[in-house]
Amino acid sequence: MIKTHNMELDVKDGIAYIGIGGRLTETEMSTALDWLGVQTDEHAQFNLCVTMHKLNMPSLGAAKEELSRLDEVFEMLKSVPKAAVISESQFIRAAAAIEGALIPNLKIKAYETKDRAKAIMWLKAG
After folding, report:
1. What is the pTM of this model?
2. What are the strands of the beta sheet with 47-52, ordered from one edge?
3. 76-107 pLDDT, tens per residue?
4. Do you know which InterPro entries this protein is assigned to (predicted)?
5. Where in the sequence is the domain holding 86, given as residue range(s)?
6. Exposed e or buried b for every residue in 76-109, given b needs 16+ CB within 10 A?
7. 56 touches 16 (CB < 8 A)
């Protein structure tokens, strides 16, 4: 498990968990992307559960870090057949639905925080 001020990363039972609780810094974004790369190297496939506790846009440095590694991100997503996005924010849930339509071979479902158990059940299901 990796834990910083604004994020928590963990993997359990074939699911990579990313918890975001604040505005990500460039260092945190780099850490998250490096961690996802390790998961991709260690697991042929894994599902992803992203919980966004607050609607905070990443810092400019974090956005720059993600954009500079976009090819790598898309390559890593080939190992992820399903992703659940959990948030109280309707905006985040709607954005997840749009991403799901744009990223080939990745099924994304968005859930409210109260439906976390349902989201994990969906990720664990065949």
Report:
1. 0.87
2. 2-3, 7-12, 15-20, 47-52, 82-87, 107-111
3. 888 999 999 999 999 889 989 898 888 888 99
4. SpoIIAA-like, SpoIIAA-like_sf, STAS_dom_sf
5. 2-124
6. bbebbebbbbbbebeebbebbeeebeebeebebb
7. no
